[in-house]
Amino acid sequence: MDYKVKDLSLAEQGKKQIEWAELHMPALMEIRKQFEAEKPLKGIRISAVLHVTKETAALVKTLKAGGAEVALAGSNPLSTQDDVAAALVEEGIRVFAWKGENENDYYNNIKEIMKYEPQIVMDDGGDLHAYIHENYSGKLIGGTEETTTGVIRLKVMEEEKVLKYPVIAVNNAFTKYLFDNRIGTGQSTIDGILRATNILIAGKVAVVAGYGWVGRGIAQRLRGMGARVIVVEVSPLRALEAVMDGFDVMPMSKAAEIGEIFVTATGNINVINKEHFLKMKDGAILANSGHFNVEINVKGLREIAKQVRTIRPYLEEYTLDNGKRIYLLADGRLVNLAAAEGHPSEVMDLSFSNQALSVKYLIENKDKLEPKVYNVPQEIDETVAMLKLRGMGIELEPMTKEQIEYMKQWRYGT
Fold this sequence. Notes:
2 domains; alpha/beta; 7-stranded parallel β-sheet; Rossmann fold; 8-stranded mixed β-sheet; single chain; globular; 16% strand; 17 helices
């Protein structure tokens, strides 16, 4: 089979969803026009492990417009939008993804997309890159990586000198992390929490673990909705930044006693652990925005719970021996994609424009790049920004000839 999705009859609704996304992704649509005319990806096979959302569909259709053959699997068992997956199959994309995959399904789907012997791979989280290095002997032109967790894994592979092909860290582009990680995750995380719980944010004590770009965005938007926000950090630099941004900073051991909403965004394991659960208030809500479901020790929570109930979709109640109830959202997985729809299309316009142009760059430079992790070239970053501004109807102030010349000299001073 060239696909495995939940229900092909959902395709018509999926097409409408994709149309809605494309309406709000002007930069990517401009790139698609260029790809259709120039066919820079002609004859290239691409296998991708990405969240199968309407925005991803807009990217995949752009790659196809550029001449590529694409196979797609989901990068999280709960993030696939089944109507979008069905619509992509009808577009001629080999899709192996559905919402509610188990772990075995997840890795089998990665195996399926690698059967097409891709020349380029695209990943979100690093599982595809890891699978290739452990199980695949074919030669690749290169790959891309969408998120912080995956870039961290790839940098370790580079340091250990096991990386087999060049990878462009799309996550490290200014037009990715400043907007996708910070603004996109900030909004979509709260969207997921509200869809799962319908609680009032205002007045609550919210604890954000991690003050990277994702944590910054979540903390800022929780505060904007009236929450009293505490930040938990291990880095002295980021902790200092959080303090200077006006947030309280303390260890999780203290925050656990006073928090009412907890959100993890660290990329690390067991950030909220058994000893923290036992200190929490009755009714505490736990959500994760990191890529993998390891930041909240879900296994440990189950071990100390005497009763577990599903209250509503993506909301589970854990009653502890001390009688307190803790509420876990989306089984500790990415709350913004599991309980909601992920980032708004306007933000993913930037991220996926970087992805499309990075794939083109890999092909154009296939004999020049070493097996290393590369940042997105500045030219691509600035092109994406300009395309986005143009799509928003915003003009830049041009420099005069005098100003250009002034910036090229060193003699004039005070």
